[in-house]
Amino acid sequence: MTSNPLLSGLNEQQFQAVTLPAQSALILAGAGSGKTRVLTTRLAWLISTGQVSPHGILAVTFTNKAAKEMLARLTAMLPMNARGLWIGTFHGLCNRMLRAHWKEAGLPQLFQILDSADQLSAIKRLLKALNIDDEKFPARELMYFINSAKEQGLRPHEVEAFDDFARKRVELYQAYEAQCQREGVVDFAELLLRCHELLQRNEPIRAHYQRRFRHILVDEFQDTNVLQYRWLKLLAGLGTDGQAAVMAVGDDDQSIYRFRGAEVGNMRDFEREFHVDNVIRLEQNYRSHGNILDAANAVIRHNSGRLGKNLWTEAGSGEPLRVYEAFNDIEEARWVVEEIKALIHDGTARDDIALLYRSNAQSRVLEHALFSAGIPYRVYGGLRFFERQEVKHALAYMRLIANPHDDTAFTRVVNFPTRGIGARSLEQLQDAAQAHSTSLYGALNFLTGKAAQSVGAFIKLVDQLRFACEGLKLPEMVEQVLELSGLRAHYLTEKEGQERVANLDEIINAAANFISEEGYAQVAAEDETAPPDPLSAFLSHASLEAGEHQADAGQAAVQLMTVHSAKGLEFDVVFMGGLEEGLFPHENSVLERDGLEEERRLMYVAITRARHRLYLSFAQSRMLHGQTRYNLRSRFFDEIPAELMKWLTPPASARGYGGFGSSSAVPAAPASSNPRSFGSGRKNPAVNDSGFRIGQQVAHAKFGAGVIVNAEGSGSDARVQVNFGAHGVKWLALAVAKLTPA
DNA sequence: TTAGCTGGAGTTTTT
DNA sequence: CTCCAGCTAA
Predict the structure, then answer these.
(1) Does residue A679 lie within any of the structural domains?
(2) What is the mean pLDDT of residues A203-207?
(3) Would you say A557 and A378 are in contact if contact means Cβ atoms under 8 Å apart?
(4) Between A495 and A34, whose confidence is greater?
(5) Which of A76, A115, A203, A251 has the maximum number of C-beta atoms within 10 A of its C-beta?
(6) What is the pLDDT of residues A365-386, one digit of tens each?
């Protein structure tokens, strides 16, 4: 052991990971095992021991938040100049390289970045220009197709197409590429693909970066896609003499982004291709009590093909998990609110409480209950600052200053605020642009008549803006844009427009901050580029980092979010609601190959968010898509050892809601196509005189667990319809079938 | 050009 | 049920 103070307090595995010699390594970092600490300490250790200069390090993350945190913690440990440090997101780093080598990458110097919304509108515009039937080729689908092709590293000519439909799609992909190139814009996937191609084709540039980056660190490696992994291999010079040391840190059990291209298999491939001879496992958890970890371990054990890992803690086992069975979703929410009130009363801070759910639709009922109770709450997942329409409008004007041929920006604001340029004029303009293969801005010269006049006025405005902004500092530029474009005036006259005006003004602040803060400094620190243009750097920043999620950060509030957005966070108390078959695991996932395993990993993530107390709840019935659905409780309950759970409701389902009621026949509900969840249009009527009621969970000797979804008849004729999940939905005569409350 | 209607869809999300 | 996109009528 050295006496290096950086290393004090590390456990054995952490120490081992931090002080590994310069070789490639795979770190399996369990939830709450001090992953970020290891990553940052590793960086600090490498630098402080003189093994590598800050110049020789590349650290990649997925989110700006993670990159910022890493940088902040590193500079706190080891005061240094952040200039020249390559710590950032995949997209941010690729952008940086492309800015430096725009010529070699075949891009205009001031290329703009399309965010997803921009990309979608660019595709819609393309489809319209080509007169494509958008029934057959919906823009969203085409966008998904293009992005996934790019994420596999495939250009149009490399995509296999065996039928006319597929060939047409590829053709559209090609047309989209041509359009982007013409307009000087790149989408997110293009940043990566372009950068990969640059490195692959340009030997001197590749050699330069391979020589430079001696240590590459990758965070959340399980979330990398095919292209990102290839990019890493290229940068690391895999298989070359001077191969860099790559430290991949990740957790296969927390891989929950396959739906957006993440390839867990990269972990195994990495282990093999980089000849990793010892995988380091960080299994000691510093976050949760033992019972919570035991539950998480028990659930994830049902997955196959894991790299293997078992979380443990030195903290005690703590209390058991608290399980609640609710009558319906509304009652579930009411119960959550009652518990929260008690928790707050006992001194738990509101923002130490999180309400997690599988899908966003579930937040409504919770919000309603919290609102009625007057408990401050905060929902994650809304619009972010740079995604708001007024902000995007202002940015579009700025994009036109940087590049008047940016047709996406052009179409966005050509008639906003309205200036009499309707669909007709725009269509003429688009036709002219198409005919003379020029941008919309450039097509003015080919227009005649009324359209020429109105469009001419707008183009004059764009020129005027560019002229007025020449030599101005960024914040002053924003100021000019807001005034001259008429945006501020427009929102001032709009009722309820004050917030939008405030957001517009906030762009000025954002620009000022950007100039003074690291955002710009990082780009400015680029050693091999000419001084970058602040405007275009700011626009990239706006696309690459959409800003904070909209929520009032004011008073401490109860946190509401999906399990996905909770990844990486932790809370004293976690409520995991809606644990029902069909919802979690989600019905769509059950059909996908290995979909259930991904749901299970999601459950694992959910459980491991809790530090001290974890509530699990489900409802017998729930309003979904305007229909009441009766679902079985989630199979995940069966995967958690019973001794870890304390049921807050009497032995599953035996509570006497409903009881007896009308004995008249209830019309039969339509059979469900999904065997494990079941929908019916009616509320929860009490059923015949059998003591059973709709929504109740029951057990059958042959079919196992089920839930009553319908009933009819009374006395000896009483029959109930039961959803037995995998065993199907069946009508059973109560006089004959042995059905017991479960 | 905009308001108002109608129909369709409805996991998860970062850059 | 509830949101959104796209269409029709003023």
Answers:
(1) no
(2) 97
(3) yes
(4) A34
(5) A251
(6) 999 999 999 999 999 987 888 9
- What pLDDT score was predicted for residue A690? 67
A35 annotated among ligand-binding-site residues: yes
Active site residues of A: 35-36, 219-220, 254, 609
Range in A327-331, A518-522, A621-625 with the lowest mean pLDDT: A518-522
- Statement to judge: residues A148 and A203 lie in one domain: no
Q: Which residue gives the smallest C-alpha to C1' distance to B11?
A: A359
Give the domain range for residue A160.
112-183
DSSP string, A96-150: HHHHHTTTTTT--TT-EEE-HHHHHHHHHHHHHHTT--TTTS-HHHHHHHHHHHH
Buried b or exposed e, range A563-601, using 16+ CB within 10 angstroms:
bbebbbebbebbbbbbbbbbbbbbbebbeeeebbbbbbb
CA of A127 to C1' of C9 (A): 27
pLDDT tens for each residue of A88-142: 999 999 999 999 999 999 999 989 999 999 999 999 989 888 888 888 889 999 9
Give chain A's radius of gyration (CA, Å).
29
The answer to whether residue A59 scores a pLDDT higher than 90 is yes
Indicate whether this model's pTM tops 0.85.
yes
Q: Is A44 annotated as a binding residue?
A: no
CB A687 within 8 A of CB A720: yes
Q: Which positions of chain C lie under 7 Å from any protein Cβ?
A: 1-2, 6
Assess whether A397 and A455 both reside in one domain.
Answer: yes
Name the residue among A658, A677, A657, A660 with its Cα closest to residue A669: A677
pLDDT value of position A246: 97
Nearest residue: Cα versus C1' of B2: A418
Q: Is A34 annotated as a binding residue?
A: yes
Q: Total domain count for chain A?
A: 5
Q: Could you count the other beta carbons within 10 Å of the beta carbon of residue A529?
A: 15
Cite residues whose beta carbon is less than 7 Å from strand C.
A 124, 134, 139, 364, 623, 625-626
